[in-house]
């Protein structure tokens, strides 16, 4: 893990944070990724079968692993109940997909802050020590929680400056695949219109003094997307790491068998 401020204070980081995507619903996988030393593990509940119960155990696995790896959960949607139940599990950060307007971003902040600043309900859950540390939790949560929103459409890019300016939003996330699809430029990472959209999001975040990040699933993508000027990078996906390692072992085994 790099020497950095962490997700909750990512704007103060000296170097980009590096995390990895977790899609396999298994605490052991989460623990392994944390032990490797990523700055954070990003858990995906938007496109995976990870349940709240499994997510809670995956978060425990990250917290129990040696080192200082943090946890980010990409929630399924921006419904206040979804946000509340996820935050009760105690992640370091949340990432909300498909955010397109400043009004939507403001609603996310409102739903994730306790009264009087917001309307999040207080539960006797993991985040509050199951009720044993309610007061401390309420007093410190705003300083220890990070909120990220994912911009992945042309409409989101058009509203990037207003979204970035919403109080309580700590960072933007460029969803490259969906953004390229929205622009009818699927996978055309060097397309001028696509790069223009990315640049606008990056500039909007930095002008607002907040972080911006994205996903990269290969060595070439990591190099290119760090050149975008991002502050954090999700460097690959657990299932793809598994597939790549398994394929390499199979190919190597077949190669050495030919020598005999």
Main sheet strand line-up: 1-2-3-4-5-6-7-8
How many discrete structural domains? Answer: 1
Roughly what percent helix?
40-55%
What is the CATH architecture descriptor? Alpha-Beta Barrel
CATH class: Alpha Beta
Can you put this structure into words, describing what you see?
The chain has 260 residues and is α/β, with parallel strands linked by helices. It has one domain (7-257): Phosphoenolpyruvate-binding domains (TIM Barrel), CATH 3.20.20.60. 44% of the residues lie in helices and 16% in strands. It contains eleven helices and eight strands. The chain has helices at 27-36, 52-64, 80-87, 102-112, 134-144, 154-158, 160-164, 176-182, 192-207, 219-226, 238-257; strands at residues 17-22, 40-44, 70-74, 93-96, 146-151, 171-174, 211-216, 232-237. It has an eight-stranded parallel β-barrel, surrounded by eight helices. Helix 3 links the parallel strand 3 (70-74) and strand 4. Helix 1 (27-36) runs parallel beside helix 2 (52-64). The longest helix is centred in the C-terminal third of the chain and has 20 residues, at 238-257. The protein is globular, with a radius of gyration of 19 Å.
Concise account of the structure shown:
This protein is of the alpha/beta class and 260 residues long. It has eleven helices and eight strands. Residues 19-243 form the HpcH/HpaI aldolase/citrate lyase domain.
Q: What is this structure's SSE topology?
A:
Elements: E1 17-22, H1 27-36, E2 40-44, H2 52-64, E3 70-74, H3 80-87, E4 93-96, H4 102-112, H5 134-144, E5 146-151, H6 154-158, H7 160-164, E6 171-174, H8 176-182, H9 192-207, E7 211-216, H10 219-226, E8 232-237, H11 238-257
Parallel strand pairs: 1-2, 1-8, 2-3, 3-4, 4-5, 5-6, 6-7, 7-8
Pfam family, one: HpcH_HpaI
GO molecular function: aldehyde-lyase activity; metal ion binding
Domain HpcH/HpaI aldolase/citrate lyase: 19-243
């Amino acid at each position: 893990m790099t020497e950095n401020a962490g997700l909750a204070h990512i704007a103060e980081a000296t170097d980009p944070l590096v995390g990895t995507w977790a899609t396999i619903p298994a605490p052991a996988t989460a623990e392994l990724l944390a032990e490797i030393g990523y700055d954070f593990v990003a858990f995906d509940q938007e496109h995976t079968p990870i349940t709240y119960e499994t997510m809670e155990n995956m978060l425990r696995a990250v917290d129990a692993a040696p080192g200082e790896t943090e946890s980010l959960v990409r929630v399924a949607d921006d419904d206040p109940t979804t946000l509340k139940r996820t935050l009760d599990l105690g992640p370091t950060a949340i990432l909300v997909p498909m955010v397109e307007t400043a009004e939507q971003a403001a609603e996310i902040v409102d739903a994730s802050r306790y009264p009087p600043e917001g309307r999040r309900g207080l539960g006797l859950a993991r985040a509050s020590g199951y009720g044993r540390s309610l007061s401390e939790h309420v007093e410190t949560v705003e300083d220890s929680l990070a909120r990220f929103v994912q911009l992945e459409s042309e409409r989101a890019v058009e509203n990037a400056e207003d979204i970035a300016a919403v109080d309580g939003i700590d960072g933007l996330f460029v969803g490259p695949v969906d953004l390229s699809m929205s622009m009818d430029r699927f996978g055309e990472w060097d397309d001028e219109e696509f790069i223009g959209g990315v640049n606008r999001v990056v500039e909007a975040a930095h002008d607002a003094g907040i972080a911006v990040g994205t996903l990269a699933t290969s060595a070439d993508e990591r190099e290119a997307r760090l050149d975008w000027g991002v502050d954090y990078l999700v460097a690959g996906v657990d299932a793809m790491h598994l597939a790549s390692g398994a394929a390499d072992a199979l190919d190597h085994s077949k190669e050495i068998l030919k020598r005999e």
